[in-house]
Amino acid sequence: MLLSAHGNSKGKIGVFIEDHFDMTEYRLFNRRFPAAGYDVQYISNLWGNPTLQFGSNPDNGWVEEHLTVSKDVKDVTPSEYVGFLLIGAYATDRLRYTVKPEKGKPNDAPAVELMRKIFATPGVKVGTICHSLWLLCADRTLLEGKKVTCAHNILCDVENAGGLVQYGDDGTVGSVVDGDLISAKHPAFTDELIDIYLKEIEKS
């Protein structure tokens, strides 16, 4: 799925997605980034299929949002994007699945391998929110020493992976910027994440 901006595009933002994504974030990404002049392209591990359909969390008792993804993470070149977003809820937990883990072998899930390439590409911004830091927890080298915030549910996961979680008066803080990594606490901070993310990518 590709949502195109009206007129001349300022660039392309890739959004990692899988089943059980947060629909608040999904709706705001789809509205605000194209309105700001950016194309939004949803990417996932397609498991050799030309397309796959994913659904949101059943927050109100049913799955309200569906989308069909045709861009495989294996076919993504980081330098062709101004940045990437990791959608919240359980999508990124599914994306870090590795078929045949072996002791001492780094996680080889295609989405994790793409994250390694993204972090090795200077200036490409990565935005995370809520549970989505789970994807970076799959490889300690992606998260270690970085200042972040996240949902309280995954604090232990993030800190065990070396992330430096930032705390305030109400648990974790709302948002954090550390170099090319921008993180937000949970869906109520989606607009704040987008505001900061747009400011960061337009500085580049």
Helix and strand pattern: EEHEEEEEHHEHHEHEEEEEH
Structural class: alpha/beta
Strand content: 15-25%
Q: Give the overall form.
A: globular
Compact description:
The protein has 204 residues and is of the alpha/beta class.
Could you describe the 3D structure shown?
The chain has 204 residues and is of the alpha/beta class. 27% of the residues lie in helices and 24% in strands. It has helices at 23-35, 91-95, 110-119, 134-137, 140-143, 155-160, 190-203; strands spanning 2-3, 12-16, 39-44, 52-55, 66-69, 71-72, 83-86, 125-129, 147-148, 164-165, 167-168, 171-172, 175-178, 181-184. Strands 1, 2, 3, 6, 7, 8, 13 and 14 form an eight-stranded mixed β-sheet that branches. Helix 1 (23-35) packs parallel to helix 7 (190-203). It starts with a strand and ends with a helix. The mean pLDDT is 95.
What's the layout of helices and strands?
Layout: E1 2-3, E2 12-16, H1 23-35, E3 39-44, E4 52-55, E5 66-69, E6 71-72, E7 83-86, H2 91-95, H3 110-119, E8 125-129, H4 134-137, H5 140-143, E9 147-148, H6 155-160, E10 164-165, E11 167-168, E12 171-172, E13 175-178, E14 181-184, H7 190-203
Helix pairs in contact: 1-7
